[in-house]
Model the fold of this input.
Amino acid sequence: MKTTANFNYRSIRFDQDTKNQLVLTLTAPKMEGTQRPALCLIPLIDVSPSMSGEKITYAKRSLIKMIENLSGSDYCGLVSFASMARKESDPKKCTQSFKEELKRKVNALDIWGGTNIADALLEGLKMANNMDLSGEVITRVILFTDGMANTGPARTPTEMLALVEPNLGISTISAFGYGEDSQKEFLLDLAKKGNGNFAFVQNPDDALSAFGKELGGLLSTYATSLTIEVSPLANHSVEQVVSDVDAEEELGQVTITIPDLLSEEVRHIVLDTVLKTQSKVFPRSVNVMDIRVGYDILNGTMQKERIVTDIKAKIKFVKDGEQQSKPDPELDKIVGLAQLTRAQLIAEEQAKRGGYGAAAATMNTLSMDFGERGLELLKGVASNISSGMSTADNYVNTSSYRTSVLSGATRSVGASSYNASAASDLTSLGVTLSTDTQILYAQAFKQEDPQAPADLVNPDQIVPPSAPMDLQGIWSNPSQPLGQITWTTPHTVTSPVDVPTENILGGYTITAVDLIQGLYDAATAGTVPSTKEPEKTPKKRISQKTKRW
Done:
């Protein structure tokens, strides 16, 4: 891994104290071959009534895709939650037979109850921490919800976050917010506390790419348990860690911890420093801070190996008139992005206390500073956030934009999905939102539909009725053959286009139109419906050759 340390101003006056920003950059190499860490994944899926329709459809598709991409060295469990949490499956090794079993359980998930996020988190963390796994396995609990907690032992964000820390154990947590009604600020805070990723899933089909990017990131984890120790020399000091990372200071030494780094990820850490007056000019750059970087990787025998690297942060002390008059343009963009994050964190706290005017002023002050430094794109983003915090209504309406900017500016590849406007703005700032592996998996999840287990859906099992009939009752078991399935409300079948509603059956989307068309054809022809497409039908009929999601 390449590690560099550069000051925003590389030459400064020797005869005065100078504030300067230090930029530490970690660049992970590309992982070669198939070597990658084993995973233990435990999805927590919201099945409350607000998740009905396309939301649960795409959530199921995403889960099935995720399951199919796990190998025999991985583990996977499953928790669903509504008014209470249901342990659908303990984490087990992903043999082919268990993956098929797990996919059947995903397909059988039904909608019911309220939204008990707290019990789901506790159940998922309990399952993860009860596993006797080696330290090489990455354990990730993935929360997927579209709403706000309305029942359970904890309902407010503060209460739920307080539950996580003492129960986190070896696990990490990623949090996916589905739609504008989700508690995006809470989910972002939860992902940060859980050392995982945040995703704002704007549209139903975005769930596919979000899960794909999450899995791609986990599978391409290059380093874990990173520590950066910054030790100032000769009375120089670190005044603040600007970047939003965990950091502690003791006797002048600052220790920064980062949970992981992905293959090909570039991570910048910005620190505010004060460089003290020197007694004389120095002809060359001198070391002012020692930096030690440590991290774990998997070696050739798939065992953890600790790597430690030492680097130096150097500066040139010069006489008045010879100092660098303007910051390095590229480094100042990196510094500006970190400052945007720091200011937004302050403004968010002001807004949460009802101080919308103060929050808007905080961001507006930074926007003007960016303008004076010629950072016009950052100025625009800061101005957007300022406007979004100016009133209570604006604050609510810009939630997905603000949380996406905050997540992406903190760690660009750490968000599995973004608000579209935020993604556009971050990209314009030169932020890389995904690694190549994340892009590959996100595209793969959307391009190819997962196959349903063969024993769940078979058109040849349709039992043709003797004539058009009334279908009524309860859709109670998605694993039944088609001919035994009835609908949740009564309908009289008078034409092939009756009842344009949808349900999930064994991994396929079977509409009332599809089933009734088949029954209608069978009744009139006296045969099992063909798997070929009819020339004219209001909607495509589902067959083994035609699958729709």
Observations:
- The radius of gyration is 27 Å.
